[in-house]
């Protein structure tokens, strides 16, 4: 599994880790029950602090993507991938709503908005 | 403890050449010019003196290499660290004396005179001087550091030396008085040396326990 | 469980005083001690190691009193002070022979492994070693009795980036064991920014802040604005500010709140160095 950390993206490192692991789980690259690297190993390999990987794993656990067992490590949770996808879909819909709101308030046309979406999606 | 002593000995290893050089420079001219008996005492004296000086060398190396700080991060009590310094100094006096004896033996063999009983007296005298010296030097260094102690020690040892010269140097004292003084000193000095050591060691421990580096 | 804890520790010198220093190093973490030269970093480390005595306060290492249990504690600590600690005339193998007899738990094979990994010439005298090599020797020496805690004073200062990176790798290896911890002082904040879990920031003998590093890096922010905008910023949002001829830099403790409150102002994330500089040089309002 690859995890790429950017120091200049402005996005906190723990968020970069969680979002990449989430997408690996959703895409099926990581399957239910797959073991994740230990927090300490991940920290060492990425040359970041343990507290950062711990935060990332805590967040993933909180969101139900992984399960951690003391002494054993962390594993991809037995969670319905459909359910995760649905949640993500809901989140995307929410963001799109905001975008539409903003567009309407300043008279941006649907065509313009769609064009923008197309460009962003292809980025 | 073994580690601390090993560090001392490996540390002064490079000083060994200097040691031999000093012995050569001091002893050879005297050995050549004087009669055998005098040079044997002189040789033991020089070697023992260099042995005593090794305690300065050791402390000095410690300060230069910052070992004096590092040693306090090691799993030893402060008393053990003090003890290692005393042990090392005693060993060095012994080694110095042994070397002196060896040199004297060689000189005696060459001149064909053999080692006389006065060698024994010289040694007792020097052991006592050695004990007295390190008993003064070690606590001083623990208290004031090597640089300041060097000056203090010179002053301290100059006083009895000058007194000695003052008393006996003008030649008015007859041999009998010197003889009598020596016979007293022979048992008094070792006693003083042992007593000094017995006071000096706890004093050093006390000083070093309070020391901050 | 904490590896180290300091509670209200004070130490007075004629020209410098450490006052009321409290912080903890949780087991399994790396604590970075930062501050400018003379801020009291080395004094703190010396206090922990009982090289000097505190006038007041309590220090515990592994939950034990650091003076009563000194020997027991020191068997389990590896220490690297800023300067080399061996006689220059010694050879690497002689240093190893000494070290072998200094620690009960010394592991010769492990020391050999480090020496090879660091490329330390076994037969050479230490005076021929570069500064980086000396530091690597000190670190190898500090690790080879398998300590639980590493205490390092400016271990990476004055070294080139390649050596610094090698050393950071060693620290990260060490911390793979959850029972291990590191307390490292440095005025080079970029190294600690990478690997430290917690940061304690000393200034003029006092702890300015002691915090989770991520909280600091992602929590603190710097608002940049002109005179007019500065007037709009509520005083409680200003931790420190610094004025230049062309505007203000404002350190704020809650970047996200500031982003919501002042959406039109430029808001940068704060690097450790920025926090350090503004805390020292900035003014409060």
From TrEMBL, chain A:
Keywords, sorted A to Z: DNA-binding, Transcription, Transcription regulation
SMART domains: HTH_GNTR
InterPro entries: Tscrpt_reg_HTH_GntR, WH-like_DNA-bd_sf, WH_DNA-bd_sf
Family matches, as CDD domains: WHTH_GntR
Top-rank lineage group of the source organism: Bacteria
Keyword DNA-binding assigned: yes
Pfam families: GntR (PF00392)
GO molecular function: DNA binding; DNA-binding transcription factor activity
HTH gntR-type domain span: 11-79
Protein's name in the database: GntR family transcriptional regulator
From TrEMBL, chain B:
Presence of keyword Metal-binding: no
Top-level taxon of origin: Bacteria
Database matches in InterPro entries: ABC2_memb-like
Keyword list, A-Z: Membrane, Transmembrane, Transmembrane helix
Segments crossing the lipid bilayer: 12-32, 38-59, 86-107, 119-142, 151-168, 180-201
Pfam name, any one: ABC2_membrane_5
Keyword rRNA-binding belongs to the record: no
Designated name of the protein: ABC-2 transporter permease
Annotated organism of origin: Christensenella massiliensis
UniProtKB/TrEMBL annotation, chain C:
Segments passing through the bilayer: none
Domain ABC transporter: from-to ranges: 1-229
SUPFAM superfamilies: P-loop containing nucleoside triphosphate hydrolases
Keyword DNA-binding: no
Pfam families: ABC_tran
Protein keywords: ATP-binding, Nucleotide-binding, Transport
One Gene Ontology MF term: ATP hydrolysis activity
Protein name: ABC transporter ATP-binding protein
Originating species: Christensenella massiliensis
């Amino acid at each position: 599994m690859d995890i790429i950390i950017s120091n200049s993206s402005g996005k906190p490192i723990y968020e970069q880790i969680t979002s990449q692991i989430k997408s690996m789980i959703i895409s099926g690259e990581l399957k239910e029950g797959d073991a994740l690297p230990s927090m300490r190993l991940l920290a060492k390999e990425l040359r970041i602090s343990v507290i950062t990987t711990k935060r990332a794993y805590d967040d993933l656990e909180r969101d139900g993507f992984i399960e951690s067992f003391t002494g054993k490590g962390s594993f991809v949770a037995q969670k319905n991938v459909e359910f995760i996808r649905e949640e993500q879909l809901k989140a995307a819909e929410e963001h799109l709503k905001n975008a539409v709101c903003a567009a309407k308030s300043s008279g941006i046309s649907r065509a313009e908005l769609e064009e923008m979406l197309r460009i962003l999606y292809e980025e | 403890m073994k580690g601390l002593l090993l560090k001392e000995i490996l540390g002064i290893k490079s000083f060994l050449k200097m040691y031999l050089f000093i012995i050569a420079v001091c002893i050879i001219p005297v050995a050549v010019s004087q009669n055998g008996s005098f040079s044997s005492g002189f040789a033991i004296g020089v070697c023992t003196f260099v042995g005593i000086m090794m305690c300065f060398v050791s402390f000095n190396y410690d300060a230069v290499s910052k070992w004096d700080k590092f040693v306090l991060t090691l799993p030893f009590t402060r008393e053990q660290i003090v003890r290692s310094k005393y042990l090392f100094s005693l060993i060095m006096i012994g080694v110095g004396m042994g070397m002196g004896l060896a040199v004297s033996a060689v000189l005696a063999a060459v001149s064909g005179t053999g080692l006389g009983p006065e060698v024994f007296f010289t040694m007792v005298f020097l052991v006592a001087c050695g004990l007295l010296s390190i008993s003064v030097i070690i606590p001083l260094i623990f208290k004031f550091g090597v640089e300041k102690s060097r000056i203090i020690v010179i002053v301290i040892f100059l006083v009895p030396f000058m007194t000695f010269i003052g008393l006996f140097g003008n030649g008015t004292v007859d041999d009998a008085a010197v003889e009598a003084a020596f016979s007293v000193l022979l048992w008094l000095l070792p006693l003083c040396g042992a007593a000094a050591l017995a006071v000096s060691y706890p004093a050093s421990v006390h000083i070093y326990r309070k020391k901050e580096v | 469980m904490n590896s180290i804890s300091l509670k209200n520790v004070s130490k007075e010198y004629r020209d410098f005083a450490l006052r009321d220093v409290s912080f903890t190093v949780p087991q399994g973490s790396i604590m970075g001690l930062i501050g400018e030269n003379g801020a009291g970093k080395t004094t703190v480390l010396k206090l922990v190691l009982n090289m000097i005595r505190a006038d007041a306060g309590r220090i515990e290492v592994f939950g034990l009193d650091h003076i009563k249990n000194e020997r027991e504690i020191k068997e389990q600590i590896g220490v690297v002070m800023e300067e080399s600690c061996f006689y220059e005339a010694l050879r690497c193998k002689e240093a190893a022979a000494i070290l072998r007899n200094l620690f009960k738990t010394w592991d010769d094979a492990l020391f050999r492994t480090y020496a090879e990994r660091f490329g330390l010439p076994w037969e050479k005298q230490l005076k021929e070693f570069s500064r980086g090599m000396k530091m690597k020797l000190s670190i190898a020496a500090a690790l080879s009795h398998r300590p639980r805690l590493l205490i390092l004073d400016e271990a990476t200062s004055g070294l080139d980036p390649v050596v610094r990176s090698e050393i950071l790798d060693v620290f990260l290896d060490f911390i793979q064991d959850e029972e291990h911890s590191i307390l490292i002082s440095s005025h080079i904040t970029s190294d600690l920014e990478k690997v430290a879990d917690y940061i304690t920031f000393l200034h003029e003998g006092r702890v300015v802040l002691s915090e989770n590093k991520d909280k600091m890096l992602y929590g603190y922010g710097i608002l940049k604005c002109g005179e007019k905008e500065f007037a709009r910023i509520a005083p409680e949002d200003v931790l420190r500010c610094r004025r230049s001829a062309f505007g203000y830099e404002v350190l704020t403790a809650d970047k996200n709140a500031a982003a919501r409150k002042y959406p039109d102002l430029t808001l940068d994330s704060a690097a450790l160095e920025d926090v350090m500089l503004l805390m020292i040089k900035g003014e409060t309002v």
